[in-house]
Amino acid sequence: MDLYAEEIVAHYEHPHNKGRIDSPSASFHDYNPICGDDVTIYLDIKGGKIADAKFEGVGCAISIGAASMLTDFLKGKSLHEVKEMGPKTIIEMLGIDPGPARLKCATLSLRAAQKALEDKR
Ligand code: FES
Q1: pLDDT digits (tens, 9 = 90+) for 34-74
Q2: Which of 35, 38, 111 to mutate to test the pocket of ligand 1 (most atoms within 8 A of CB)?
Q3: Which pLDDT tens digit goes with each residue over 74-93?
Q4: Which atom of ligand 1 lies nearest, measured to the CA of 62?
Q5: Residue nearest to atom 4 of ligand 1 (CA)
Q6: Domain count, the chain
Q7: Residue 71 C-alpha to ligand 1 middle, in angstroms?
Q8: pTM to 2 decimal places
Q9: Which CATH number belongs to the domain containing residue 113 in this structure?
């Protein structure tokens, strides 16, 4: 297995930041109706930055691996930075291009994080 794929599987098997934040500043539940995967992102915001990020959910190795990596990655980022993130950020974070069919898996948690910030306004 290639090194990056191994890292995704390691995050899937031992996800970082799994769980919920009590009284989060923002949260959003997102769902992929095609496969049934779902993720809820919880964000704690302090001084315009992500102070903490956690997630709950079930899904494939890419969706859960990406949620684990993303919640690590988001900490310390400004709200503007999070809003500007796109698929390219996720592909760089994963270290592989999952291809068009799996891009939805890889970006499920990012979309949830961005919708959580939109809802907060
Ligand atoms: Fe459902 Fe990956 S198969 S998000």
Answers
A1: 889 999 999 999 999 999 999 999 999 999 999 999 999 99
A2: 35
A3: 999 999 999 999 999 999 99
A4: 2
A5: 105
A6: 1
A7: 18
A8: 0.94
A9: 3.90.1010.10
